[in-house]
Design goal:
Layout (H helix, E strand, L loop, with lengths): L8 H13 L7 H8 L9 H12 L2 H6 L2 H5 L6 H23 L11 H8 L10 E7 L5 E9 L9 H10 L4 E7 L9 H16 L4 E7 L4 E3 L15 H13 L4
Helix pairs in contact: 2-3, 8-9
Length: 256
């Protein structure tokens, strides 16, 4: 039976007319989900499925962060709907990352923990797995490149020393900053985090490229490993005294 003969046709048409006449802003969360599910459910009552999704995951954020298997466990969610939600989640994350990153001039001087954190934090938005990034800086502490090093656990090869060192050398980086996240956890470095930071710092040192810092991010905080300070919640606070010395030494051409 096609949507043309669906008993929900009238309701769906009214929802579409309402959307056309107003805007999505005035729709409740379950109504937006209901309409998205029209595209993967031609026959059934998607309003009920939308309510089931919110009940299962608590919010749109929870739904879009959910992995495929958990989505499929919700009554009424099939392969196509799970794929749709997964794709929307990833598109949304990339949109937010790019939008937030673009607020920072990519040539801004990143000479405090706060500035570096604001540059890096958007890249971890919505991440449900641990991932690692490397940020390359020039001799004025401006970003040259920022790239993913791996996904998974930091102790399990994602942070490949060779990958970071080769890219930094090839790009003629003056300094490197590492960052990884603890999704759903706290911004406290593990013993593995500390050990691999030391190994990468030693490898970069052989190339004459200093590792400025390795940051651990959680949802609402960050902690530097090389120059630790007390973790905190809320807005990232600068510990600029650490980076004042770095900036001075950069100006001298000798960062240690």
């Amino acid at each position: 039976m096609s949507e043309k003969h669906s008993p929900h046709q009238g309701h769906r048409q009214r929802m579409r007319e309402r959307l056309t006449a107003t805007s999505p802003v005035g729709f409740a969360d379950h109504e937006l989900l209901e309409m998205l599910l029209y595209y993967t459910n031609a026959r059934c009552d998607t309003n009920e499925i939308a309510h089931s999704l919110i009940e299962a995951f608590g919010s749109i954020e929870g739904i879009l962060d959910a992995d495929r298997d958990r989505l499929l466990a919700v009554l009424g969610i099939g392969e196509q709907s799970a794929t749709l939600m997964t794709l929307i989640g990833e598109v949304s994350r990339r949109y937010l990352t790019q939008k937030m990153t673009d607020r920072t001039d990519k040539r801004d001087v990143l000479d405090t923990p706060d500035r570096i954190a604001r540059f890096l934090a958007p890249r971890f938005i919505g991440a449900t797995r641990e991932m690692a990034l490397a940020l390359l800086l020039d001799n004025s502490m401006r970003p040259i490149d920022c790239f993913p090093v791996g996904e998974g656990t930091v102790s399990g090869v994602p942070l490949l020393t060779r990958t970071v060192a080769e890219r930094a050398y090839t790009k003629h980086a003056a300094a490197v900053v590492l960052a990884h996240n603890h999704p759903g956890g706290v911004a406290v470095p593990s013993s593995d985090d500390v050990a691999i930071t030391k190994r990468i710092a030693e490898a970069l040192d052989l190339l004459g490229i200093p590792l400025v810092e390795h940051f651990v991010f959680s949802n609402r905080s960050f902690t530097p490993i090389l120059n630790p300070f007390t973790p905190f919640e809320g807005e990232a606070a600068a510990a600029s005294s650490i980076f004042d010395k770095i900036k001075i030494n950069f100006n001298k051409g000798d960062l240690k």
